[in-house]
TrEMBL record:
Organism expressing this protein natively: Streptomyces amakusaensis
EC number: 1.1.1.-
Domain Ketoreductase residues, every copy: 16-195
InterPro entries in alphabetical order: KR_dom, NAD(P)-bd_dom_sf, Sc_DH/Rdtase_CS, SDR_fam
SUPFAM superfamilies according to UniProt: NAD(P)-binding Rossmann-fold domains
Top-level enzyme category: oxidoreductase
Keyword annotations: Oxidoreductase
Protein name from the UniProt record: SDR family NAD(P)-dependent oxidoreductase
Length: 259
């Protein structure tokens, strides 16, 4: 019981509200579930209603508090509307997870204005707009946790990094800017950096067993990532336990990045 109390003091999210973009699939889905099971009321946000509904139904059936907002984060007006809608469900979020992302991967020489703009809108502008909407209020309340999901491609070029790598590099800078602005007031901003995690985002790559095996071989653990690998790291970064960790990039990649 003493251990239980100690762990709760460190990691419980009871009474907290979280907004998880991309919370209907892959890494965002696993993080939404982890935060909800740790006690937070969780709003998941994405475009596809069926996957959102499925997520909310599953979380609610597991005894969690969950709700959804349907929005397209590539459109600034939708981001603003969705933020207000999300805040009305369980109250202003204490935890913001930016997991929604797209990776369109055209060769660099063929990278169109459209692909560049859409990539930046979803992967970078939306996290900025949501942070600007919720960060100051978190700071005023003295507690906040912002978690961005970036990529190996924020740090190194591979597999047509193109606009995607640029957007993720900038997202790591955004976390540092947010940390500088709001950490004096109890708000941390950090990023989780995945290795390769087979999800709908990279369905094309995942369908190639040779490439999947080659990526697994590049890790130190000998396997590719699973969405559930992000659960504990997300709970840590969302919890009181991580109060002195800010502006950091935490690699959850089986050692992919270190050799
Ligand atoms: N999987 C990997 O290997 C890997 C590696 C490095 C980094 N990451 C990053 O991890 C994050 C999650 O990726 P994942 O692999 O979990 O991908 P995923 O399974 O494809 O999930 C992406 C999520 O983002 C939502 N989304 C996409 N475009 C959106 C838009 N315009 N507006 C609102 N929501 C949108 C999707 O829902 P809808 O399509 O219904 O909108 C979905 O919920 C991304 O930021 C990605 O860049 C993934």
């Amino acid at each position: 019981m003493a251990a239980q109390t100690y762990l709760s003091e460190l990691f419980s999210l009871e009474g907290r509200v979280a907004l998880v973009t991309g919370g209907s699939s892959g890494i965002g889905r696993a993080i939404a579930e982890a935060l909800a099971r740790a006690g937070a009321s969780v709003v998941v946000l994405a475009r596809g209603e069926a996957a959102l509904d499925f997520t909310v139904t599953e979380l609610t059936a597991a005894g969690c508090r969950a709700a959804r907002v349907t929005a397209d984060l590539s459109v600034r007006a939708s981001v603003r509307t969705a933020a207000e809608e999300a805040a009305q469900i369980f109250g202003e979020p204490d935890i913001l997870v930016n997991s929604a992302g797209i990776n369109l991967r055209p060769p660099m020489s063929e990278l169109s204005d459209d692909v560049w703009d859409t990539t930046m809108a979803v992967n970078l502008d939306a996290p900025f707009l949501l942070g600007r909407r919720f960060g100051p209020a978190m700071a005023a309340r003295g507690y906040g946790r912002i978690i961005h999901i970036t990529s190996q491609q924020a740090h190194r070029a591979f597999v047509h990094s193109g606009a995607y790598g640029v957007s993720k590099g900038a997202l790591e800078s955004l976390a540092r800017s947010q940390a500088e602005a709001w950490s004096p007031h109890g708000v941390t901003a950090n990023t989780l950096v995945p290795g390769f995690v087979p999800t709908p985002l990279n369905a094309h790559l995942s369908a190639n067993p040779t490439q999947v095996a080659a990526l697994a071989a590049r890790t130190l653990t000998g396997r590719n990532g699973l969405p559930q690998d992000f659960a504990s790291a997300a709970v840590f970064l969302a919890s009181p336990a991580s109060a002195y960790v800010t502006g950091q990039s935490l690699f959850v990649d089986g050692g992919f990045s270190v050799h």
